[in-house]
Protein 1
Amino acid sequence: MVTPARPNAPSAAAERTDGSPVRIGALAPLTRPGWVEAGQHLLSGLELGVRDVNDVGGIAGRPLELVVRDTAADPQRAAAAVDELARLGVAALAGEYHSVVARAAAARADALGLPYLCSSAVLDALTDQPTEWVARLSPPQSRGWQVYSDFLLGAGHRRIAVAVQPSVYWASGTRILRDHLAPRGGSVVEIDMSALTPADVCDELLRSRATALLLLVGHPEPAVPIVQAVRRDQRLAGILIGAPAGQPEFAEWAALLGEDGAGVPFLRYLPETLTPLGARVEKVLRERLGSAPSFVAFEGYDSIAVLTDLFRSHGTDRAASWASVAVEGTRGRIQFSRTPGSSVWQWDRPPVQVVDREAAKPDEPARFRILHAG
C-alpha cells in the first residue's frame, strides 16, 4: 500500500532514540452528555494496553504515553481536540465511542494526515471520502444491525417498532433494519420520541401491532423510562424490548432498571471464547473496573495492540500502513482490509453477538446469555 506523503515527515530510519515518549491521542466521552461508563471502559482498556507495552520496553526503548481528551459526545469538541493533539505531536489517535463524534474526529484526522484508529464507533460512513488515514476495529453498523435483524426474524418477530430520536446514527440504524427486514417479510414502524413521552410510547406501541420494540434512543434518558413504562403496562406483557446499540452492556443499566432491565437483547462485539491474551486482560480489567469489562474495554486494549504493531513496523512518523497490521488481540487476530461500502480500513473479522442479561438470582449476579452470533 502506498502511504500518502506528508511534507517534511521524518523517515522511520530517522526515528528518535532518546527515550522520549511516543504519544497517542486518546478520545473518549468522560462527562455528560457522553456515555460516561462506556468512556471509562474504553480508557481503562487503552491504559492497560499502554502499560503492557511499556512493561516490555515500549517502542524501540521509547515508552508509550496517552494524551487523553474528553469529547463529552460533542463532535465540535472532538474536532478541536484532534487539532490540539496534532499540534502536540501525537503519533496517532485512538478511541471514541459515539459514532457522530468519531465521524468528526475522523474528518479532522484525514485532513491533517494523522492516523486514527477508531475503537468503538460503528457508523458506516465514518468519512465522506475514502481515506488512508482512518481504520476501525468495531464492525460497521450495517453488519451488526443485520445480524440483529436476523436474530429478530429467527425469534419470530416480523413487525418491529422503533422508539427513535433524531440522529444520523439512529436514522442509519432504522434504515438498515428496514432494508434488511422488508425482503424477508418484516416491517418497521417508527415512534418519534421528539414528540412523545415514555407513557405515550405504550399507546403507540399497542396501535402499531408490533411484537418487538427497539430502543434507538439515548441512555439513561429516555431509554430507562421507556423500559419502565412498557414493563409496567399489562397490555404489553408479550412485547420484546431490544437495544441493538448496547445500552444493557453496562452496569448502570442493571443498577437503574433491576429486573426490568433483564431480557433486553443487545449487540456486543465479543467472541464466544476470548484469546489467551483476552483472558488475561479480562482478569486485570475486572480488577481495575470493579465489574466485568464490556466489549468496549477490549476494543480499547486492542487499539493499543494495533498501534504498537504499526509503530514497530513503520516507525512513529505518522505513517498509516493499516494493510500491514497483523496482530493477536484479545478477541482474535486483527488484520485490516477495504470492505465494500466503507471509506475506512476495517478489521475484517470482528465478532458480533446478540446477548441479553438474565434476571439476577438471590445467590448470584446476573449473567449474559448469547442468543445469536454472526
Protein 2
Amino acid sequence: MRNAFVRELLKRAETDERIFVITPDLGFSVWEPFRERYPSRFLNAGIAEQNAVGIAAGLALAGHTVYVYSIIPFVTMRAYEQVRVDAAYMNTNVRVVGVGAGFAYGGQGPTHHGLEDVALMRALPNMTVCCPGDDIEARELTAASFDHQGPMYIRLGKSGEARVHEPETRIAIGEPIELIAGSQIAVLASGTALGRAKEWVLRMRAEADPVEAALVSVPTVKPFPSEIITKYAGQGIPIVTVEEHSVIGGLGSAAAEVLAELGGGVPLRRFGLPDAFCREVGSHSYLLERSGFHYERFQDIVRGACGQ
C-alpha cells in the first residue's frame, strides 16, 4: 500500500502544485521519483520530526497540501505536540503519513512498533484518521486527501499487504465497505489486519461447523462510520473488531463507544494487540503470532461472541 500511496501522489503532483512532501530522513528507494520530478516540492528535513511537522504547517498555511512521511512512532509520538498544535489546532492541510503499522518494523525492536498511534490521532480535534487495508484503499484515500480540508493521519503498512478489493473499487473518506454478507456475526476490520480478517472469515465459513460471518472494511476510523454499528446492532448481530493496533483506543474502542451510546444490545469483542509492550525482536509474522494475533484465537473470540 505504500507504493500505491506514492504513485497516487506522483500522479496528482503533475497537475496540482499544492502538493509538497517532507520526510525526516526516511524513504530511500521510495521518494526518489518524486524528488527528481519535483525538487522544489520535496524536502528532507533530517532526523527532526518536530521541525518537519512545523515546516509542514507553515507551508500549509501558505496554500500547500503537505505530506509528512516517516515511521509511525517518530511521525506521531515524537512529534505529537507539533501535530497537536501546528496541524490539528491550526486546522491546517497537513497529512501525517505513518508507515510500518503494528509490527511491520519488528526486526528493529519496540521503538519502531506502531501500536498506539490510532488512539493518539483519534484524540485530536479536527484530525481525520485513515487506516487503509490494501493498495486500493490506500490509493482511494490518498486521492480523497488532495481536496480534504483539515489535517489527516494516514496509517500505512510497510509492504506486501494482500489485495482485498477489485481495482475499480471507489472509496470515500468515512465510508465502510461491506465485503462479505453474513447473518451470525459481523467482523469489522481496518488497516493491515484486513487481509487476515478476510482469510479468517472465509475459513470459518468453510468449516464443518461454519459461522456465517459478515466482513466489513473500516478504512476511516475517524470520523467513525457509526451507521455500520447501528445496522448490525439493530439486527441483533454480534460484532468483532480486528486491528493490528492496541485493543485500547483504536477501531475496537471507536466501535464500542458507538455501541454504548446506542444502548448496547449486542456483544462486541475487540481482537487486536494486547495492552503491553512487545519486548521481543523478530519478523512481522513472528511477533503477531507471539502476541496472540492468529486464527485460533480469532476463532475462539468469534464463536464466543456467537454464544457457541
Protein 3
Amino acid sequence: MKRARTTGAAAILLGPFFALFTLATVVPIGYAFWLSLFTEKQSGLGFGSTETVFSGLDNYAAALGDRAFREGFGVLLGYCLCYIPLLLTGALALALLLDSALARARRFFQLALFLPHAVPGIIAALIWVYLYTPQLSPVVGAMESGGIGFDFFSPGGALPSVVNIALWEWLGYNMVIFYAALQAVDRSVLEAATVDGAGAWRTALSIKVPLIRASVVMVALFTVIGSLQLFTEPLILDKGTGSAVSSTWTPNMYAYTAAFERNDYGLAAAASLLLALTAALLSFVVTRFTGRKGRKA
C-alpha cells in the first residue's frame, strides 16, 4: 500500500514534466524526422506544380555529401577547441579569485561580470560588430594608432571574433555557477588545509577544484551542447559586414539557409537531426569520460 502511494505521488509530480518534455522535445524531433524523409520536386523543368515525394535517407546523404555542411563541422571544431577551454578556465579562475580572502567588493564584481549575460545575444553581437568595424570602432582606432592591425572580419579573424563575443556573453554566467559551488564548500576543510601548510594556490587547485567537480562537469556538458548550437553571433556577422562568415558557416546556419532561403525543409530537417545526433554523442562522451575520471579519483 505504501509503495503504491509512493508510485502514485511520483507519477503525479513527474507527469507535468514528461508531458512538457513530450510536447517540447519528442514531438518536434519526431516531426523533424518525418520531414527529413520527404522532398519537394517540381515537374515540367521547374515550371510545373510542386509535389512532396518520399525520398528516404536521400536528404541525409545530400547533407553529408555537401562540402559546405562538412566544413561547418570543421568550423565548430575550431570554435570548441578555442572557446570551451577559455570559458572553463576563465570562469573557474574568476570564481576562485572572488572566493579568495584577497578579493574585495565581491558583489560588485559578480554583478559587473554577470551583466553581459543579461544582454540578448543579438544585441551583444550588434555591439561587437560596431566595435569590430574600422572607421567606427574606438577599439580598432586605438589598435591602429598603436601599430596593431587586425581585421576582425577576415578569414583568419572571423573565428576569434565570434569566440570573443561568446566569451563576453557567457563567462560571467558560468563564473557565478562556480562561485556558488565554492560557497558550499565546507570551510573547515579549507581551514584544515591552511593549518597543514597549504598555500592559496595549493588549496585552490587541490582542495577547492576537486570539491566542485560536479559543477565543472555540468558547465562543461552544457557548454559543449551550446557550442554546437552556434548561430546568433555568426549570423549577425554575416549580415552586411563583409566578413568571411557565410550563410553556411556553421551547421545551424546551413539548416537555417536550407529552410528559409531555399525552402528545402527536408534537407534542413536532416541537417538539424545530424547536428542533434552529434550533440548527443559528444554529451555521452563527456559524461562517460568525466564519470570514469571521477571513479578513478
Protein 4
Amino acid sequence: MATDTTRTAMIIGGTGQIGAAAARRLAHDGWSVLVAHRGQHSGDAALADLDVTTIRLDRDDTDALLEHARGHDLVLDTVAYEPRHADQLAQLDGDVGSLVVISTGSVYTGLDGGYLDIVTGPEDFPDYPIPLRETDETVDNDEQTYSPLKAAMERRLLETESLPVSILRPGAIHGPFSPALREWFFIKRALDHRGRVVLSDDGSNRFSTSSTVNIAELVKLCAEQPGHRVLNAVDEDALSVAEIARAVFAIMDREVEVVTFPGPPVESLGSTPWTVAHPLILSMAAATVELGYRQPTNYADSVGAAVDWAVREVELAQRRGDGWEKVFPTMAARAQADGWFDYAAEDAFLRDRITAR
C-alpha cells in the first residue's frame, strides 16, 4: 500500500467503459491511478491531465499482473469473469488495501431457478423477485457460460475472507468506450432518420441500467471503506424501454414516435437489448445503508456522454471507410442474430396498423 498521503489504485481493464470512468473518478479525488490494458483501445483522452499512468498487460501473465498490482491501496478488476481469475486475485491477500471486482446482475436466478444464459424465449424467461437483493439466489452449476462462471468467480473470491473484496453487480451498463452499447439500438434509428420505433410489451420492459458514472462512485466508496461484500450497482431510475428510447431521442434532438404493441416480440419485431419477459430490477438499498451511497446521476442525465461518444466514433469509422459494425462488434453480432434493425418488418407492421384503423 502507499506509504505517503497519496492513495494508489491499479485498474485491470482500465480503458473499457467501467475502467475509464473509475480512473476518472478516482483521479479527480486525488488518487494516483495505474491503468492496465491490452493495448487494443485508445482510452479516455480526458484522463491526460490527471495522475493516471497506463501500461500494457496480458491478463494471462499472472506474474506480471501480481508484480504491478502489489502495494496498491486499491485493485479494481473490471474484466475478471471466471474462477481462475479469482485465484489470481487471491494471491494479493496481504499485499493490497482492498479489491473491487466487477461481476454482473445476470448471476441471479429466477424463482424457478432459471437464469439469463439458458433463456430461449419469453416462455422460459426467469421470474425474478422484485427487486433483486444481494441475498437472493445465484446460479450454481458447472456450465462454462458467462453467468455461471461469474457466479463461481464470486464464490471463489468470497472464500478468501482475509482479503477485503467488494463485488459489484451491474445491470445493462451504459457509458463511453463500450463495444456493446445497447443504446446504439436507438441511436442508429435516429441517425437513419427513422420516424418511428416499434416496441413489444407496450414498451414496459424493465432491465436495470447501470451508468458507468454511478459504478465509479461505488468503486470509490468501496475503496474508501474496504470490506467483504457483494453489492448491486445499478441506476435507481429503473426506466422502461420506452422511457429509455425517449431519453436517447431527446438527447439527439430527434422526434421519433414510440409505437408499441401488447405481448412479446413477434420474431424480431419489437425486440430490443432491454427486452425481458419479466422485470429484472436490482435493489440499491444495501449500498445506501452500508456505504452511504447516493446516486450521482440518473439515466437521462448520464446517457448523453455515451450517445455523443457513439456518434463521434461511428463518424470517424465511416471516414476511414468502415461501418458501425467496426465500432460495435458485439452489438453487430447480436443485432444480426436477433434482427434488431429489420426496418422492413417494422414498416410492414406500421402499414398494417394504419390500414386496420
